[in-house]
Each structure stands twice: as C-alpha cells, then as structure tokens.
Amino acid sequence: MSILIKNGILVTMDGDRRVLQGNLYIERDRIAAVGSTPERADTVIDASGQAVIPGLVQTHVHLCQTLFRGQADDLALLDWLKRRIWPLEGAHDEESIYYSALLGCAEMLLSGTTTILDMETVHHTEAALKGVAESGIRAVCGKVMMDAGDDVPPSLREDTEASLAESEELCRKWHGAAGGRIRYAFAPRFVLSCSERLMREVADMARSRGVMIHTHASENRDEVRLVEELTGKRNVTYLHDIGLTGPDVVLVHCIWLDETEKDILAATGTQVAHCPSCNLKLGSGIAPVQELLDRGVNVTLGADGAPGNNNLDAFKEMHLAALIQKPLHGPTAMPARKVMEMATLGGARALGLAQEIGSLEVGKKADVVVVDLRGLHQTPGDSVDIYSRLVYETRGSDVTWTIVDGRVVVAEGRLLTVDTEELRHQCNKALHRVRSRVGLE
Question: Quick check: pTM over 0.85?
Fold first, then answer.
C-alpha cells in the first residue's frame, strides 16, 4: 500500500527541473511526498548510489513484432515490410501475438520504460492487449488498420467497414481497462496501406471518442515519392488535408519533410515520435529533430518494433537521439537534459497524460524507476551532471526497480509479473511456428 524510496538522487523533471538528494514516498498509486517524507512504509527501497527518475515513455512501439527480432536485418523500409514484416505479421496466431506482446512489455519494464504507445497488427489485437494487461505496463494501444495498397498481402488486407467496426469495438472494450492503465488509439498504418475514406473516418471516430490517432509518416524517401504519386501531395500535407494532424495525433518518424510540412506540424500542435535506432538501421535517414524543436513541435522518443533495431531499450534511444543531431547542428544541439525531457514529460504530453505521469510530483501517478549509477561504465560519477549520466552512460540493464501505478513490477532487477523462463520457451516455439507458415523454416 505504501513504498518509501530513500537516499536516492531524485531527478524530478518538475517545472523547475529540481534534482534532489532524498526520499520519495508513494501511497497506493500516487506520489505522496518528494524530498521530506515519512520514515516508514510497507516497502522500503534503499536507493543509495542510484537515481530515481520518472518512468520512461516510448511513443512508438510494435509489440506484435517483438517476436521477429533479428528476422529482417539489412533491408530498406519497403522491402523490410513486403519481404519479411508483413508476411510474418500475417502468419501470427493468437498465442504468438500474446507472447510477442508479453516479451516486449517484459523487456521494456526491465529497462525502465513504464508507458508505451503501441501499434499492433491487423489480427488478434485482443490477445496482445491481454499480454499488456498482465505485464503491468501502462499503455495506449491500437489495432493496425490496412484496407488498401497493391503490395499489402491478403493475410493483412482488410475490408474498410470491417476494419472500422473492429477498431471501434476494441476501443469500446479496452479504453480505460485495467483501472485506466490501458487506453486505446486508432492506428491506420500509413498512407500507402490505407484508403482516404478509412483515414477520414478514423479522424472522426477518434475525436468523437476522445482517443489518440497513431500513424507513420515520411519515414523513407521512396514512401514519400509513392504517396505523392498516389495523392498528388506530400505526406504530411495530405494527412493535414484529411484531418490527421493536431495535438491528438502522433506521427511517427517524419524524416523527409519540406518546410511547409514542418510549419504544419508546428501550427497544428501535432506530436512527432522520433525512433533514431530504427531510422539508422533501416537506412531511412535522420529526422530534422532540432529544426522541429526550434519550431515548437513536441518531439518524443520510441524504439519502434524490435526487428527495426533489435532492442527496445529507451536509454539507447536517448543516447542516439542526443548524438545524431550534433554532426548536423553542432555539439551544443540536443543537450542531455532536453533528451531526458523528451523521454519523460514530452512523451506524457504527446499521450495527453502530462497531468498524470512524466515527472516526480505529488499527486501524480507513481510510475517510478530506480537506476543504479555505480557501474564501472558510469565511473567516476562525482561532479558529473546527472542528465549526462542518464543519457550518455546509462544502459537499460542498470535499472534495478520499476514501479507502475504504485505497483512494484521489477525488484532488484527481477521481473515480478512474468515468468521469464517460460516466456523465453514459449517465444521460441511461437517463432518457429510463425516462420514455418511463411516458408522461412
């Protein structure tokens, strides 16, 4: 019922960005005190030599793809989709989706991510949501929608009405589930796999229900060219014209933008999810993050799907996000404190949850991570800026405790909500089963 985290370095990410040496006190699912706290609690965690940070927020992942880690290396985006990812997604069954989602959640909880924006595949979304619920992670999830595109395989191609109806039913059933820990988002995949009618209706349906919209945009130059051939417009301009921009929309990647599109994102308050390791691995490019930030766009961070970067570690995404802008904009670009904000408060803002998560403040949800700073790769630590230590030095494996909604889900580096040995066994079985269906065994 109560948790006392004592003797830690509290990286609050509050309005004053206070960094305190002291205690954090949790009652039920809320932060009850920061700094000066009671001395007793049902659970006491000694955080000496460790940082206490808000849980990290990833604004773009594909839990359905975790099972396919390492199955699609060294391919550009459209080949990556057509030759490997789409066939594998189409071969999923309910059990394989469930274990794929559970695996992704387990990996992220162990490495300090407490909230995700997740895009599933076309089928078996409810199985993934069950895995999410069991894991203990906070999540905004949505079934992917795909009703168009010559290259979309029959296993994923949907009827427009059926796609809308299933998404609507999932939203009705799951938005607000698990005591509010799970929310729904409508997730049309991208322009090349979605009809204009579907995307326009998604905009109306999502807004009538007050939920997020989550889609990809301008990740790859060939994608941008094909969108322009199909619609006569550049990607973000087209999405804007059909109603898919605004504060309730997360556009993922946004690498290949012209000046008009950057202005649209800024003027509409559209959220952007930046996935640096996936963008590098697929050779997609480097997003103009510093330029978007300079325009006032809220840019956030995500790992994307595991086969796009082979890991789901938010600390790696922070590290890369800080580094890859510097050759373009100089060594002062993307300071560590700003990157830490992108991974916490920025992500919370993108999901409409800034009043609930993203900082260590009294009254906010108790989504808290404890990070060990005593490793040799973090030594010497004296007189080193804490944001620098977290962004440039820390690894996901340094996480010792993860708390979501006031519940301890990782204790001393051990996941409490999932049997990890059984999970490993089931994932290997499921991958062989799915690969055999598409002739890869």
Answer: yes
